[in-house]
Amino acid sequence: MSGTQSKEGFTLPKPVAKGGFTLIELLVVIAIIGVLALFSWVNLYQIGSQQELRNARRGLVALLRDAQQRSLTQVEGRYWGVYFEKNPAGDGRDRYSLFNSGVLPDPDKSFTKEILTVITLKPLLELQQSAATSTIAFHQIGGGLVSKDCPNTVFNEPVSVGLKNDPTVSITVQVFCNGRVEF
User: Fold this and answer.
1) Rounded to an integer, what distance in angstroms lies between the CA atom of residue 88 and that of residue 126?
2) How far is CA 11 from the centre of its chain?
3) Phi, psi (5° rounding) for residue 20?
4) Which of 66, 72, 90, 102 has the fewest C-beta atoms under 10 angstroms from its C-beta?
5) Residue 160 pairs with which residues in a beta bridge?
6) Exposure of 12 by Cβ count < 10 A (0-12 exposed, 13-18 middle, 19+ buried)?
7) pLDDT digits (tens, 9 = 90+) for 41-52
8) What fold is seen in the domain 23-182?
9) Residue 68: which of 21, 136, 152 has the closest Cα?
């Protein structure tokens, strides 16, 4: 039998190394996994926010172009446009709507409009404009922007949508006097 001899003459068994991890090693590994998970979560949130902004831009551009097309084809013989509202229901969510009007819409004055389609922004997004409401409407002939500043070729009506928790992250869609919609 192999072992070590003690002072009393007894033979002690040789210590056998046991496999396993110490508590400190386990805590370090758990901490590293936690930090990696946190960074992954933050990146996924940012990717999701950016995707929501892109989706909002696509929807806004599509609705603006739809309103312009309806004006050009003179659907129902009416003017068409998009009406923007900041928090109209008091729930913290902004929205925009497709409308038509029997009279030439004046963005500076109140006019009668029929709202057809209402799109409410996701809770993390907001319209970034100073006015509580605004309107973009299109002429029936030519599809140009209805504005007192037109026919200035460089004038455009911008609409911005951004993140509520980070106003520096936003997208802007511009509608020019000739009706061109850019983003």
Assistant:
1) 12
2) 76
3) 150, 180
4) 90
5) 172
6) exposed
7) 777 777 778 888
8) minor pseudopilin epsh fold (3.55.40)
9) 136
